[in-house]
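As practice, study what follows.
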Amino acid sequence: MRKSSVVSLLMAGAVVLSACERSGEAEVNRALQDLNVVDESNLNDVMLTVADPNEAVTYFTRASASEPDRLEFRRGLAKSLIRADRPREALAAWEAVVAHPEANAEDSVDHADALIRANRWDEAEVVLDSIPPTHETYRRYRLEAMIADSNEDWSEADTFYEIAAGLTTKPASVLNNWGYSKLTRGDFVGAERLFVEAIRNDETLFTAKNNLMLARGAQRNYELPVVPMSQTERAQLLHTLALAAIKQNDLTIGRGLLNEAIATHPQHFEEAVRSLRALEANVAN
């Protein structure tokens, strides 16, 4: 009788122990799953930011093939293809994203961006028009401004550029785009003001500095503005000013600016040398 009781107690203990082990095992598995999600999320972020774009494409291609229903993998692939400068493939990837039942308005913005990169402006406009007006983001209005520019709807472009600039803490790029829009319209004073504002927000934005030279040159103002620049940048900006002067048929000023650019550059400035030779050859003829 005692032996039977002991056996029963041992069996009961084994069952309890087994249940405890299974419970502990389940908790460990859950913890590992949570850890895997965190690690996977971190890896996704790394792939979308600092990883080589083509490596990221490979990673998200494999992940999407392994789990085709996971929207974050589809998004990652589409974004990586944009980073890798493969717009046609990216467009197909974004079409797959927006077809997913969990896709959101920002996915549609990315889809419109991919359409613009593929030079399909009319389709991009249709996509943007389909996004609810309550979805107000910097990227959405930046694209709206670009489409208005392509349609030469200057009033609407100005409105969208202004909204976009107000929706970001780093407006230099959109201010530069807005300035270039003004430049193409012949509003050189307005363009100059926007390029200066862009540089004020990002002193490293050389494109805005170069565009500023074009705006000043178009006004026959060939003085370098007071903006931060390295010695190499100074030489390059003098070269841009020289070309603007030559375009206005101010040849003597253009020659002087080219010579100054060549003398300023810390190394041999082949591009400016070629421009000077071409100018002197044309004058001689």
